[in-house]
Recover the amino acids of this structure.
C-alpha cells in the first residue's frame, strides 16, 4: 500500500464552539452533520453537496491507495464465496401445521421464504422471493415475517434505506395479493391477535428513532384510524410488543438499560384492557413467558446479579407474589430459558462457557448437554412447538462448522439435522487449533482470550495476529466458526477474540465493571490483552492488528489514542467515536436510551469522564497505526459524520506517514450491504487491508 497521505483529501475547518459545564470544545468539522431530510432530498443544498463531495473524495482516495490490491481483493472475494453453498437451505421448522424454510438459489443475493403443509413431501409454497422484491433497490431488507394464526395472511416488513425504519404490509398467502395497507416508520415487528384480523405493531419517533408507541390495526380499515394502545413517554425507554409462546397473551414491554416493565392483554380480546405485571423500578429487570396459570420471569430481583427464574400467578402477577424456580447463583449467569409442556430448558454461562440445562417439570431429571471443546458456542432456537420432546439447538466452535441439532429430551438421543458445508475442497477441521488463554489486567482481573490458528502456524514474534473485541451492552461475542476467517488463518494469521469487560462473559458483574464510570476498563482490558499476546510471543507490535465495530469501533478509537505503538493496523467499522457530542444531543437517534450505558453528560461527572476517553476529543499530535475506517451514509445507530470527522481530525494532527483511509458505503447503514455477496465483498476489503500491511498478497498484486 502507499504509505503517504500526500494526496489525501483535506477537509475544510469551520470552527464551531461547543460549551457545557464551563468547558469549551472547538469542533472544526461540525459542519459535516446533515439531517435525514438533507440526505434524502432530491435537490441538494450547498452544505449537503460539500459533505457528499468530501465523502466521495475520501472514497476516491481509498480506491487510489488500494488500487494495486484490487485484483487480490477480487480473488479473495471469490475464495470466500467459493466456500459457501450457494443453493443452501435452512433446516425446516414446524409451526402451526406448516414447515417453514429459508433457502438460497445459486447466484442469488437474497433468500426465498417458503413453507410446506404438514409434511416435507408436500408441494412448496413460496411466500416471498426477496430477489424479485429487491431488484429496483441498492439496499433491501425484508424482515418481521409473521403468519396469522389461521395461516392465511402474513405481515412483512421492508427497509430500502438502511435506517431500520420499516414499512409494514400484509400479504394474502392464499391469493398472493398484497393488501393496500401500508404502515410506515415501524420497528418491523408485529403481533397477530387470535382473531386473524387485528395486528399490533411498534412505531418509532421519526427523529430519534426511539420505539415509543404501540398501535392496533384492523384489516380493511385505513391506517389513519389505527388505535394507539400504548405510548412510552419516558425518553430513556423503548417499547416492543410480542406474543407468548402459549399464544394466549399479547405482551407489551418497556425497557431501558437497567429497568423493564411488562403489561399483557388477552390475545382473544384485542380491544381489551392492558394489565400490568410489575410496574417499573430502577435497577429491576425482568422478562416474561407464560405457562399454565403462571408467568415465568427471568429477573435480577433481590440483588440476583446473575439473574434467576421466578414464577407468579397470572391472576396476581406483581413482584410480591414472585417465587423462586431457579435460584440465583454467584458463579452462573442465567441468560435465557425456554418452556415446553414437560421440560424447562435453561441457557446458562459459567466460567465464560455456554451451557444448556434440561429440567423436567416433574423433577425426575435435571442434566446438562455435554460439550467437549475448550471454546465453543451453543444456542437454543425459538422452538415454537410447545408439546414436544424435541429441543433444537445450534452448536459450533472456532474449528467446528455450525450444526443444527435436534435433541430428544426424553431418551437423550440426538440427530444432526444439518452441518454447515465448507466448499472448495480444502477445509479440514483437524488443520486448525483453538485454545483459551487468560491475560492479567492491570487491576489483577483475569481476561480470557480465545485463539484459533492453522496447525502449521508457528507462534512467534513474527506471527500476524488479529485481535477482535466488542465490550459493550453486556453482549458476549460467541466463539463461533467463520468460513471467511479461514482466508486469514490459511495465510498464517492468528485470530484472537478478547472477552473484555463490558460483555457478560464472566457474568453480569463483568458487564457492570465495563460501563458508565467503569467504561475505561473495557479499553485497558483490550490493551492488556495485546500486551499479554506480545509478551508471550504470540506476535509483536509490527504484526499485531485490531478490529472492532460500532461500540467496538469506539474501543478501537480509544486504544489507538492510549497505545498506538502496539498495533501495525486497525480497522474501525461504523465506529462510535464522537461520544460527548452524540450523548449531549438527544435529537440524535437512540441517544436517550444510552444514558445508563455511557452516562448522561448533562451531569458534569459523566461529561468529564466521557470526554476523557472519547476518541474524537482525545486525538492529539502523535503517530497512529495504519487505519481503515468504514461507515454507512444512512447509518441510524452511529451517524456517518462521527467517523468522517474523526478521520479529518486524525489527518490534521497525526505525525506519521502511515495509511489512513475512510470508506463510506453511500447506499447502506449500520449493518453494511444487504446482499449476501455484497457483504462478502466488504469482508474481502477488510481482510485485504490487513494482508496488504502484512505483505501477504502474493503475486496477484502489483507491489509499489
Amino acid at each position: 500500500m502507499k504509505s503517504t497521505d500526500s494526496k489525501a483529501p483535506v477537509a475544510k475547518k469551520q470552527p464551531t464552539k461547543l460549551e457545557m459545564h464551563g468547558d469549551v470544545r472547538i469542533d472544526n468539522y461540525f459542519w459535516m452533520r446533515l439531517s435525514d431530510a438533507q440526505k434524502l432530498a432530491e435537490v441538494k443544498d450547498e452544505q449537503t453537496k460539500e459533505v457528499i463531495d468530501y465523502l466521495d473524495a475520501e472514497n476516491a482516495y481509498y480506491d487510489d491507495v488500494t488500487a494495486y490490491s484490487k485484483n487480490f481483493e477480487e480473488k479473495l472475494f471469490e475464495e470466500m464465496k467459493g466456500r459457501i453453498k450457494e443453493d443452501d437451505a435452512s433446516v425446516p421448522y414446524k409451526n402451526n401445521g406448516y414447515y417453514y424454510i429459508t433457502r438460497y438459489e445459486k447466484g442469488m443475493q437474497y433468500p426465498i421464504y417458503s413453507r410446506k403443509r404438514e409434511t416435507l413431501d408436500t408441494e412448496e409454497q413460496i411466500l416471498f422471493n426477496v430477489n424479485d422484491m429487491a431488484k429496483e433497490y441498492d439496499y433491501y431488507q425484508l424482515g418481521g415475517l409473521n403468519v396469522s394464526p389461521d395461516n392465511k395472511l402474513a405481515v412483512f416488513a421492508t427497509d430500502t434505506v438502511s435506517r431500520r425504519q420499516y414499512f409494514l404490509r400484509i400479504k394474502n398467502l392464499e391469493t398472493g395479493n398484497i393488501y393496500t395497507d401500508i404502515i410506515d416508520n415501524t420497528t418491523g415487528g408485529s403481533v397477530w391477535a387470535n382473531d386473524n384480523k387485528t395486528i399490533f405493531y411498534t412505531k418509532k419517533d421519526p427523529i430519534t428513532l426511539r420505539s415509543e408507541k404501540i398501535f392496533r390495526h384492523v384489516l380493511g380499515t385505513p391506517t389513519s384510524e389505527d388505535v394507539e394502545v400504548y405510548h412510552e413517554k419516558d425518553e430513556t425507554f423503548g417499547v416492543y410488543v410480542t406474543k407468548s409462546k402459549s399464544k394466549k397473551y399479547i405482551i407489551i414491554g418497556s425497557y431501558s438499560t437497567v429497568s423493564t416493565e411488562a403489561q399483557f392483554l388477552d390475545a382473544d380480546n384485542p380491544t381489551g384492557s392492558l394489565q400490568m405485571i410489575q410496574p417499573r423500578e430502577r435497577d429491576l429487570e425482568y422478562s416474561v413467558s407464560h405457562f399454565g396459570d403462571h408467568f415465568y420471569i427471568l429477573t435480577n430481583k433481590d440483588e440476583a446479579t446473575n439473574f434467576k427464574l421466578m414464577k407468579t400467578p397470572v391472576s396476581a402477577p406483581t413482584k410480591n407474589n414472585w417465587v423462586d424456580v431457579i435460584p440465583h447463583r454467584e458463579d452462573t449467569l442465567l441468560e435465557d430459558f425456554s418452556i415446553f409442556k414437560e421440560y424447562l430448558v435453561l441457557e446458562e454461562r459459567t466460567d465464560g462457557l455456554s451451557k444448556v440445562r434440561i429440567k423436567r417439570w416433574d423433577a425426575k431429571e435435571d442434566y446438562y448437554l455435554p460439550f467437549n471443546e475448550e471454546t465453543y458456542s451453543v444456542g437454543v432456537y425459538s422452538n415454537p412447538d410447545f408439546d414436544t420432546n424435541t429441543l433444537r439447538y445450534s452448536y459450533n466452535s472456532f474449528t467446528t462448522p455450525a450444526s443444527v441439532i435436534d435433541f430428544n429430551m426424553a431418551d437423550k438421543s440426538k440427530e444432526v439435522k444439518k452441518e454447515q458445508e465448507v466448499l472448495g475442497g480444502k477445509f479440514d477441521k483437524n488443520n486448525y487449533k483453538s485454545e483459551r488463554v487468560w491475560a492479567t489486567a492491570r487491576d489483577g482481573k483475569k481476561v480470557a482470550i480465545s485463539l484459533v490458528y492453522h496447525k502449521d502456524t508457528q507462534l512467534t514474534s513474527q506471527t500476524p495476529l488479529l485481535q477482535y473485541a466488542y465490550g459493550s451492552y453486556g453482549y458476549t461475542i460467541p466463539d463461533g466458526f467463520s468460513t471467511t476467517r479461514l482466508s486469514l488463518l490459511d495465510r498464517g494469521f492468528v485470530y484472537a477474540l478478547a472477552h473484555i469487560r463490558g460483555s457478560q462473559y464472566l457474568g453480569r458483574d463483568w458487564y457492570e465493571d465495563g460501563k458508565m464510570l467503569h467504561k475505561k476498563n473495557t479499553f485497558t482490558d483490550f490493551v492488556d490483552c495485546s500486551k499479554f499476546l506480545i509478551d508471550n510471543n504470540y506476535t509483536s507490535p509490527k504484526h499485531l492488528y485490531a478490529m472492532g465495530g460500532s461500540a467496538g469501533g469506539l474501543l478501537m478509537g480509544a486504544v489507538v489514542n492510549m497505545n498506538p505503538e502496539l498495533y501495525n493496523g486497525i480497522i474501525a467499522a461504523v465506529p462510535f467515536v464522537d461520544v460527548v457530542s452524540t450523548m449531549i444531543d438527544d435529537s440524535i437517534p437512540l441517544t436517550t436510551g444510552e444514558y445508563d450505558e455511557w452516562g448522561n453528560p448533562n451531569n458534569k461527572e459523566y461529561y468529564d469522564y466521557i470526554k476523557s476517553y472519547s476518541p474524537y476529543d482525545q486525538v492529539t499530535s502523535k503517530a497512529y497505526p495504519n487505519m481503515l475506517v468504514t461507515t454507512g451514509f444512512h447509518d441510524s445507530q452511529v451517524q456517518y459524520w462521527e467517523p468522517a470527522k474523526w478521520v479529518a481530525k486524525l489527518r490534521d494532527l497525526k505525525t506519521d506517514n502511515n495509511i489512513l483511509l475512510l470508506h463510506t458505503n453511500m447506499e447502506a447503514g449500520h449493518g453494511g450491504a444487504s446482499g449476501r455477496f455484497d457483504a462478502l465483498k466488504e469482508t474481502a476489503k477488510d481482510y485485504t487491508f490487513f494482508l496488504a500491511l502484512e505483505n501477504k498478497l502474493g503475486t496477484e498484486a502489483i507491489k509499489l
About this structure: The CA atoms of residues 81 and 409 lie 37 Å apart. The first helix runs from residue 36 to 40. The chain has a mean pLDDT of 93.
